[in-house]
Amino acid sequence: MAQILAPSTQWQMRITKTSPCATPITSKMWSSLVVKQSKKVARSAKFRVMAVNSEYGTINRVEDLLNLDITPFTDSIIAEYIWIGGTGIDVRSKSRTISKPVSHPSELPKWNYDGSSTGQAPGEDSEVILYPQAIFKDPFRGGNNILVVCDAYTPAGEPIPTNKRHKAAEIFSNPKVVAEIPWYGIEQEYTLLQTNVKWPLGWPVGGYPGPQGPYYCAAGADKSFGRDISDAHYKACIYAGINISGTNGEVMPGQWEYQVGPSVGIEAGDHIWASRYILERITEQAGVVLSLDPKPIEGDWNGAGCHTNYSTKSMREDGGFEVIKKAILNLSLRHKVHIEAYGEGNERRLTGKHETASIDNFSWGVANRGCSIRVGRDTEKNGKGYLEDRRPASNMDPYVVTALLAESTLLWEPTLEAEALAAQKLALKV
């Protein structure tokens, strides 16, 4: 990803008033993506909706209501509460009316949901409580409506097992971590699949496109598949207030990447989860399946990762390269701990091929994308900067990864003997 120089003030997790000229996303953006449409499906110039009868104006009425701006008529807003489901990677949401616009999650009420239906609670005691943690403008409904990222607790106030945000927040509130102002730039890769066959977008059904090479950052109908989705997602994230910093087509056709950051502390996880939710909604409207599988196609095809760029205040200051090397030493000693937390199915991706390091061996290098940790040429030249952890899979939990990086490099201390042996093995002088 392009080097990110400074964090946004968005990390305070507040939102600004919606611009009066801002409009929500409508389905007309996806018209170029729909390959086949039944002749029985009624159409309008702006919006396509499945309807039993169009002759009575069903579609036009639905379109009018979907695009209706309620702001001039009421102080009430719609809040879409978002949380992580039982698999640890699925996002769930439901809506509620709030009596007036809000600017901070503390102004929102807690809510609950049926945890037995998401694999997060037994049927005989199924209530799970949602705590609002971060808010974003809603690019789908527009107006003053909002998306609310929540974490989940038992009625007694204990975080449920799939609530990884709670522990991350504890780590990021540690005074040592706060003092170092950790920055993160996360590169989220994903794959777009055709709905019925679950085969990458643009690929011939049951077949393969030409070998990798022409597709990375490419343009053209025979090389780029799903650009409308990527661009719509980019704009939707900017509208929402997500700290998205770029996007590009990836090495495998039908695969894309976007970058979020630099983000400070817990903000990184909040923004990635909000951006994933928006991407799920956009692919839903486009009739395309979103996959975060780290190796969606076996064979000579790149997998999908979530490379995480990381720096602390000490790394960004003069002499920071020595601090980076000390952090790399710590990461080498906790390699197995990190790998276990870096995403399910990652062993299929981290093979030592396709710009990855082997899952079994820790390595680092300058400008080497085949290492566990990559350090940029500018960082080496300037003697300060950031490191890139290339091990996280595309389906990793950003709360887990960001907190673990801070914990391993700022709070965890190896023994002197282990440190010396690791430094010798990695040829580090710290």
Automatic annotation (TrEMBL):
Main location: plastid
Reactions listed under catalytic activity: L-glutamate + NH4(+) + ATP = L-glutamine + ADP + phosphate + H(+)
Keywords from the named record: ATP-binding, Chloroplast, Ligase, Nitrogen fixation, Nucleotide-binding, Plastid, Transit peptide
E.C. numbers: 6.3.1.2
Subcellular location: Plastid, Chloroplast
GO biological process, one term: glutamine biosynthetic process
One Pfam match: Gln-synt_C
Molecular function terms, GO-annotated: ATP binding; glutamine synthetase activity
Domain GS beta-grasp per the UniProt entry, residue ranges: 77-157
SMART domains per UniProt: Gln-synt_C (SM01230)
Domain GS catalytic residues, every copy: 161-430
Transmembrane segments: none
Annotated GO CC locations: chloroplast
Summary of subunit composition and partner proteins: Homooctamer.
Family: Belongs to the glutamine synthetase family.
Listed name of the protein: Glutamine synthetase
Phylogenetic classification of the source organism: Eukaryota, Viridiplantae, Streptophyta, Embryophyta, Tracheophyta
